[in-house]
Each structure stands twice: as C-alpha cells, then as structure tokens.
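Trying the structure run again after the queue cleared.
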Amino acid sequence: DEVALGYARAIGINWDGQINSLPKGWSDAIVSAFANIDRNGSVSALCAVSAGVAPLHQGKGVGRALIAAMSSAARGAALHFFVAPVRPTSKALYPLTPMERYVQWTRPDGSPFDPWIRSHHQAGGTLLHVCPQSMTIRGTTEDWEAWTGMYFPESGPYIVPGALVPIQIDIASNVGAYIEPNVWFQHPL
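Done. Tokens:
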C-alpha cells in the first residue's frame, strides 16, 4: 500500500562556488559530471538533475522534503555545495515572458510566484542566476511534428504545450530547436 510521493535525482560535480563556473545548465552538468569521472576528478557539489512530485501530493511540502533529502545527501557525502538548475513548473503557461522577468514575479504575500521556485526559496535556497541554455533539444521538422502533434508550415517561433519558451523551426534547414532556460539555485549545507 506504499505510494511514491515524489522522486529526486542528483549527480556529483566539481564546482568552485563561483557563479561564472557553474555548468551552463542541466545537460551541461550531466556531461561535466561524466567527464569528471573519466578524469578521476574530485567532486565538490551535488547537483540536482531531476525531481518531481506526484500530482495528488503537489502543494503539500513534498518538494521541500525532496530538496531537504538532497541537501542531506550532500552533507552526508561531505560535499561543499548543493546546487539545482530549477525548471519552473508554471513557466510553460507564460512561454513569451523572458525567464529573467518571470523569476521576479511574486504572489501578494511577497513569495515567489512559481511553485517550484517557491519551494526552493522556502527550503532556504538562493537564486543565483538564470541559465539561458539549460537544455537543448534539436530535431528535424518532421521530428517536432511527431513529438508535438503540430504542423509547422513555415520557419519561425512556435508555442508548444509544456515548453517554457517557443521552439524555433527552420524549414530550409529542416531543423527545429528548443533551448530551455532554467534557474540556478544554491542551497545551504
């Protein structure tokens, strides 16, 4: 009768604590973690790469518990930092709003507007900066049509359900690209 309320995944990276030396985002953190392993490099930080809360349990503090568990894992491994390239959960509702503006939105009580940003804030996290290229997905126009169920008759930006920003379609090159921004948070250990 046990039910999973959520999940969290993280990887070890080498980071010196300077904002300008953070990975570009989610995908770059994964690449650098594996490159670091290949070099037998040291690990100084835990980097969250994926987390989610079951829909029936959203808004009940499960997200903060996941963040606390990752912080605890970083402390237990004697790491110096815990960072997360956060994908704001409600940003897809506002794909035309630049991330730099979106992260500044607040609710009437002054707390962050976005639920996942709010969870990181309530868990004691500090917003470091926007990572404009956290993840890139490229495919042919046909790939994007299959993935989205949409038709792309000409080149240009398209709003796709679930995407944080518009995708860019180039018909002449037969390429569609989605470059997703996220937001770097650092949590105290």
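The chain has a mean pLDDT of 93. Worth checking whether this holds up in the mutant runs.
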